[in-house]
């Protein structure tokens, strides 16, 4: 059985998908970019600002599923420029305990939706 997870505290999907799917005790989030849920505008000031917005969007989706970053077991980070890795990682690290941080991959890609610089998805378990 799957349960659709959607919240107005994160940006509405911009295509034929949902913010997250809960299957049993496992939550699969769609990739989040730095869209502000209230304005629908991209947050593109600095790579740190952009990453913080992405993480806050993911936090809202996790909360809608009654979870926190402590439940996250795997993340996928897609970035447009590997030179931004350390700045993205600096913000990302603020959301996890280093000793219990999830598994992760970080991949540089040619382009992302709306030509943003970072997109992150997560898998979490209750």
From TrEMBL:
<protein>
    <submittedName>
        <fullName>RidA family protein</fullName>
    </submittedName>
</protein>
<dbReference type="Pfam" id="PF01042">
    <property type="entry name" value="Ribonuc_L-PSP"/>
</dbReference>
<dbReference type="InterPro" id="IPR035959">
    <property type="entry name" value="RutC-like_sf"/>
</dbReference>
<dbReference type="InterPro" id="IPR006056">
    <property type="entry name" value="RidA"/>
</dbReference>
<dbReference type="InterPro" id="IPR006175">
    <property type="entry name" value="YjgF/YER057c/UK114"/>
</dbReference>
<comment type="similarity">
    <text>Belongs to the RutC family.</text>
</comment>
């Amino acid at each position: 059985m799957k349960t659709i997870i959607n919240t107005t505290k994160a940006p509405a999907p911009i295509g034929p998908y949902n913010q997250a799917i809960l299957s049993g005790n496992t939550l699969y989030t769609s990739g989040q970019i730095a869209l502000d849920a209230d304005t629908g505008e991209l947050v593109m000031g600095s790579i740190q600002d952009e990453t913080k917005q992405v993480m806050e969007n993911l936090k809202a989706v996790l909360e809608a599923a009654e979870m926190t970053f402590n439940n996250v077991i795997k993340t996928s980070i897609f970035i447009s420029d590997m030179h931004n890795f350390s700045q993205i990682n600096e913000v990302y690290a603020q959301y996890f305990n280093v000793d219990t941080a999830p598994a992760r991959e970080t991949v540089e890609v040619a382009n992302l939706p709306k030509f943003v610089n970072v997109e992150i998805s997560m898998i979490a378990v209750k």
